[in-house]
Amino acid sequence: MHYTGKDIAQYIDQKEYVDTAVVPLIELDASAGGMRASAGASEYMQLLTALLEKQFKGRMLLFPPITYAKKADRIRLAEELKAEMDGTDFKHIFYMTADVSWKDSGQLENVLWLPAIPIESMDASFRKSVMEDQLRQVLPLFTKRWTNPS
Question: What is the model's pTM?
Answer without folding.
Answer: 0.92
